[in-house]
Every structure is written in C-alpha cells, then in structure tokens.
Design brief:
alpha+beta
C-alpha cells in the first residue's frame, strides 16, 4: 500500500452525508458497496454499483480520496493517483 500520495493533505475529519448512497437514496435505487469521501463526507456507491456515484462525485468535485464505508473495512483509495492507501494515513 502506498503512503506517498500528494493528496493526503485533503483528508478532513468528515461527517457522512447519509447512511447509504446519497443519490441512490434520493431516487430509490440500490447499491452494492458504499464509499465515503474524505474531503467532504459524501457517501456514494462503488463502481460495482450500476450508478457509480462515488466516482461521479470525484469527477464532479475533484475530491481525490475515499474510504470504504462498509462495516469492518477501513481501506482508502486515491482516484487521482490510482493508489490504495494504508488505513489511518493522513497528510
């Protein structure tokens, strides 16, 4: 796992925006797994979900780092660098 990501300084202490995918909840759609944006707290569905709202959020906002929002998982991913980050790594 990488630790040299230049985007670590964008990680914030966030409050999740919803208990599930924000956009799917609004439209009544379903998701497979959830991702938490570590810049703003947006909760979106993963790329295995048909809507891919977490990735769409990245393309809309350029917020680069997400964390799994699944119970028992704490891995992180940087979209910009396409790197898996060690849990608990901060800028």
């Amino acid at each position: 796992m990488a630790t040299g990501c230049p985007h670590l300084n964008q990680i914030r202490q966030v409050t999740p925006s919803a208990s599930g995918c924000e956009e799917c909840l609004a439209t009544g759609d379903r998701w497979v797994h959830l991702r938490l944006c570590l810049s703003c707290g947006h909760v979106g569905c993963c790329d295995s979900s048909k809507n891919k709202h977490a990735t769409k959020h990245y393309h809309k906002t350029s917020h680069p780092i997400i964390q799994s929002f699944e119970p028992g998982e704490n891995w992180r991913w940087c979209y910009a660098d396409e790197l898996t980050l060690a849990p608990g790594i901060h800028g």
